[in-house]
């Protein structure tokens, strides 16, 4: 009895040690953090490293605010907290300051500034300075700077659950999984001339906000009245304030580059080569973004009109006999694409259909399929097809088939394929035995390559 108690105590201490190790591994907070400087985004450094302007530009921002009016999501009850930080004017002014291209002036709370200047004047009037019997009132203040351009705009949208997904598995009480969610914040920034009121430029940027969770669990009956259960997991949410900051900084960065390029802003001549390199990278990004889809995904692949397919298959008959055996076969084919999605395939192949110790036949077969490629502009794409075919073993056996799989484009020309196909016969004599109403069938699973022709020529033509 004492031995059992000792084992239980040791097991408890072991579990506590494992939990403590997991806590350290997953950075579970054990005590409060001290205050620190704010985090920097990738564009903070780029703004600070921009080449210097010929002359800093006086700029005013009256209000750059949340225009979405959206509240945070709440699973239970109401949540009246806003989804977007309300101090976005301060974030924009900090980005303008970091760029060292502007002299931001106070306009959001201009009333407070004017009141304070009035207080200064009133205070100075109360103190008279006498010189040679004359009274001098020192109440003059330097004039306020006026802005040559104004920045307007704001956070125009906050989209929740733009993309969600996850994966998990559980087997005999042991399992785990992961889930993710993407939100999206969108910023519009426009430049207005204070002299003419003309809108000189409009900039549009967006930023995805990622939330992920990982969890694992263990559930097992140790005895009829004893259960062992354990759980582990963590969640990470990208701060909305950092996402908004990055979108605003990206907008300011883009504003400077485009304004210099079209001559609205001027840069020091010694930095012209550096600016040329930055503009080259910027235009490359713009070119890439022409293929950008929701979720920060890019449809940047091109498949040509023709390809050659070679596959190795595992072939398995589903006929009238038992003990079917899977054998290795293969096929080769030619594909022609009528458009980006639809292609016709003609293929020839070899297969061995066998029931162990009963019957074994070798077949040569031909297939004609019509295939649909779901995502032709992406490296990874599912596909499905259906068609007619024939098998030859002493005579022709006609069939129809359907299947599908996944294709991954490794480079410009070569694609890797995983495939599954089901053959349905028009007769019941593939295994030389007729039994029942069901016709003979076969199942194939295979891997292979699909080589696309003239990919380089097509890319050069597009460029």
- What is the terminal separation in angstroms? 81 Å
Gyration radius over CA: 35 Å
Overall body shape? elongated
Strands, total number? 20
- Output the CATH homologous superfamily of the largest domain: ABC-type transport auxiliary lipoprotein component
Strand order of the largest sheet: 12-14-15-16-17-18-19-20
At the first level of CATH, what is the class of the largest domain? Alpha Beta
> SSE order in H/E notation?
HHEEHEHEEEEEEHHEEEEEEEEEEEH
CATH architecture of the largest domain: 3-Layer(aba) Sandwich
Uncertain residue segments:
459-463
- Beta-strand fraction estimate: over 45%
Largest sheet: 8 strands, antiparallel, barrel
- The helix/strand class is alpha+beta
Q: Determine the mean pLDDT.
A: 82
Give the helix proportion (percent range).
Answer: 10-25%
- Tell me the number of helical segments per DSSP (H or I, 4 or more residues long): 7
What layout of secondary structure does this protein have?
Elements: H1 2-25, H2 42-48, E1 57-61, E2 65-66, H3 88-99, E3 102-106, H4 110-125, E4 128-131, E5 134-137, E6 149-171, E7 174-193, E8 199-223, E9 226-237, H5 240-261, H6 272-289, E10 292-293, E11 297-298, E12 306-318, E13 324-325, E14 327-337, E15 342-355, E16 359-373, E17 380-392, E18 396-409, E19 414-425, E20 441-452, H7 455-462
Helix pairs in contact: 2-5, 3-5, 5-6
